[in-house]
Amino acid sequence: MQPTLILMAIGLFSVAALWMTAWLGRRADLVDRPSGRKKHAGDIPLTGGVAIFATLMFGTMVLTIPPYTTASLMIAGGLVIVSVYDDYKHLNAILRLALHFGAGVLLATTGGIAVSRVGNLLGVGNIPLLMLSVPLSGLAVAGLCNAYNMIDGIDGLAASLIALPLATLFFLAHSAGHEGAGFVLLTLIPCMVFLLFNLGPNSAMLPKIFLGDAGSVTLGFLTAASMVYFSQGEDAVIRPVMGLWLVALPLMDTIATMVGRWRHGASLTKADRSHLHYLLVDQGMSPRIALTLLLAYASACVVVGLALESAPESLSLLVFLVVFIGHCGYVRRRRRESALQRTMQRL
Predict the structure, then answer these.
(1) Contact of 117 with 129, CB cutoff 8 Å
(2) Is the dihedral angle over the CA atoms 251, 60, 20, 2 positive or is it negative?
(3) Contact between residue 42 and residue 34 where contact means Cβ atoms under 8 Å apart
(4) What is the residue-averaged pLDDT of the chain?
(5) Where are the domains of the chain?
């Protein structure tokens, strides 16, 4: 089949899958309802992730686009099932984190995709992880699954921040003739189609739909797997430190939020509106403007990372840490302004 026909088939199947799962989500009452921190209008189906995974299965089984490894796709399927149940019943946060860590361990062992080296981060040579490879892979997957799950707070944000590293990896892998480029594209296309539904007018033909945990968690897993897959071995297309730049915003937002909750004695696992996207919206910025600014910020981080790919890895890590410190300082100031604003409104 011609590449153009393959792309069209993936896109059309994505549209059909998203429309069908939105309908099924409403029938099965798998919907997100407005609440204290959720300010969307009406009940929105949480089935975007199911549709995206269905597209992956269509691409691998019907269009014969090979996944990184068969086991990695099976693990992703397991995460979809667990996450759909989580959307229904809301699993304990610790149990959810343990399951995500377990998925990362399985990816490193049975899936054959593991962080074996982190590069020359300290200027002393390429650091092998040896026995730390499997647990570090588990931590990387669990961290990214939860980072995307936590940043999924305004329309289009999580999917855009997933599409960004996937698009970057596809461009680099395709340019290098890497065999894994096809599966990255297969993951990227339904993410882009999902954005049409998520950001669209919520009409009968284009119903609004959310990723749900099945989407944010599973795509977080696949993004982590992609970065590990393309940063290890002799045919790597990026250095390991580039992975930090590809997911800079969700990673920094998660850490800054956790640190902020810890400093204020709040539960680390209780959802709140202390994420940067919520702070921007709560202080008067429209969700679409906040989305645009945050996507531009994340894109700038990717550009900086790419610019530093030929520099020493230790320098790239140092610059990333400087950006991270600046990010934390900015978020802290925004939180203070938001708290002062709430105090003034009560007076």
Answers:
(1) yes
(2) positive
(3) yes
(4) 90
(5) 3-346
